[in-house]
Amino acid sequence: MLNLTDIQPQADEIYLDNNATTPVLPQAAEAAIHTMNLCYGNPSSSHMTGLKAKYILESTRMLARQVIGADSGDIIFTSGATEGIQTSIISALNACREKAKTIANPVLLYGATEHKAVPETLKHWNAMLNIDAKVLAIPVDERGILDYQFIARHASDALMICTMVANNETGVFQDLKALEQVIRDNNPGVLWMVDCVQGLGKISLDIAKTSIDYAPFSGHKLYGPKGIGMLYVRHGSPYTPIIAGGGQESGLRSGTENLPGIASLNAIFKLLNDEQDDTFKSHDVLCGYRQQLADTLNKAFENIVYNHDFDCSLPTTLNFSVKGLSSKDIMDLFDAARIRVSSGSACSSKVTGSFVLDAMGKPKWQSEGAIRLSFGPASTQEEIDRACIAIEDAVVAMQHHCLLLTDANGESDADVDGLQQWGYDNQVTWCYVSQASRQILLIDPVAELSERFQTLVNCRQFEVVGVLNTHLHQDQEDCSQMLRSLMHDAMQQTIVDNLGWPETHGQVTLENGQTVSAIEVGDKVLANLPLPGHTENSRAYLLGKPADGVLKKENIDYVFAGDLIQIGGIGRSDLHGSMPEHLFDSIRLLAEVVTPDTLLCPAHDYQQLFSTTLALEANANPLLAKLLADEVSKTEFIEQKAQLDAQILQAGEQQLCGLIAQQNSTLIDVFPDKLQNFLADNPDVQVVDVREPHEFEAHRREYLDDQKIVNIPLTRITDFIHRFNGEKADTKFICICRSGSRSAAAANALKRLDFEHVYHVPGGFALVN
Question: Which domain holds residue 744?
């Protein structure tokens, strides 16, 4: 296990994720350490050591009042904003339990772009307290501004209204005066909570001059440590303590106060109140920082779109999307370049958008591709300058590897060769490049990945051999026709069938003697093998090198099998147009023309395992094993397959194209603190960096200790498996990536396909010095 002192920021790290959390200001850290070391008294103790602690507590409370403009009401120190939100909502709902019975249709209102802590807390305590109010989201417009007419219509039935000063994803702020007027005009007594977390230190509050009932704050969003926050409660507003005990905080929140955390707030509030101190920058300076960053981003990304209006958002937040790039592409690149930003969507095979941008009505590609770049109000000009230089340098790596169009000279052409797997929401697009012939082939295109293909073709001036589908469902959107139209000038042939297969083609004979149509791709051929069953038009494409006009089993590199054979399952046969009797015949036919170990490349990948083989699937699927061994009749297969398909609707997570059996393996981990010794003990191990090429270039590391690193991106792991098939038993491989997630996936895929000596590094480069 690593020592805590070994975990440190990378050299030259540029931190631009301040809306998530901020670094602790030196003054705040010093105050906390001083308090821990020398002011260790309990504020509730009556002796002199306790009185000193009490002074820190109360002087900080006084400074807090000055910062937020609260000369009246209560200031209660909490563990953070989530506790403040819980306390506010419980207090309000507890006070409204009887009132709720007098309203025909009571509602609880919250802004549609609120932090999830708000609606989830409302729903939880609404149920726990048996209030049975309807929890309603207040819509927002395209700028993220709350719908005042909606509030006016529902306020009279509202028990509580929850809004926020500024949004954590977009920085969009609300006009509190206008909001207060519409709330109070329609319900003068409704309890109103305003999440002030993102506004502290960035916007003037004067909270006591409003009718806000509850306002939670968090220290770690303004250069304080985690675990400290505060809650403002307006004088006379109902309050229910959620922590009972010794009666600390005047009985409002029991438990010994976090004095070091409170002391850190003391230091921060003093800086905020000191007009002579320039730690916290003025609004105009912060706007200048934002414009400088925006100018840099505009230059770097031609297709950039900002997801918020700068006129109604805090100057410390930029939320943007780039047409044709996923949020993961940008975030991984920036992270490799030591630029820390956050993504609006989850970085996994399951693509999710930003609920905030969805509520604002932004297009799907903007929501799923959103990046949030946020600096703090204490940022310096030097930090912003460094950030701009780092962004410019990082984007060059994207240009070199054809994620962005560029007039560069193609320095990295050699990297664009062989098979790539592009994933989107469990769907897989396979892209094969023959560098020698400057040809490219796309199979099972996904609309969301189409711009990536266009950019690659235009960047490298490839000839497009084909844009093909293995099958199409009747209601399925087909983007391949659109792509072929856009790629018209680069297409080898434009007259094609309904799945994109060119009208003009050659032929090749398969191992079973069957002659099928084929097209050339470099020095290989792609054979078209009809395999109906999952759909009536299903087919597989076999890529390999023929000899004397025959494509033998052992010479087939890849089979693009669509949904016929999946990783962990057989394709569904209960859909409209499915034919289970033909599925039986198609699987048997496939087994005649490929080896048990030929790599099968499916159209879906639910477990991030990339590819499979008939042998592996037969080992995991008894029905498939019996079929391949000729131990089940067609009638029996149809009956048993129907039973499997019926289970799909009963599964917790529906697999649209097949019932997928989960496959797990135990990985051999080499933890970062053991890595150096492992490499010394295994001088012949091959270190495999599975980050994408643009990440590798942005954070180039040729060696790990004395071992040479090779860059084998996760998107090319199937190509790697094929090329290194002969080294399965002998060569040792240790996989590493940014965080350990992709290296675990790569190692899992290798072990599953019988690579004997495979290791990976949990925590990845994030924990390796």
Answer: 672-767
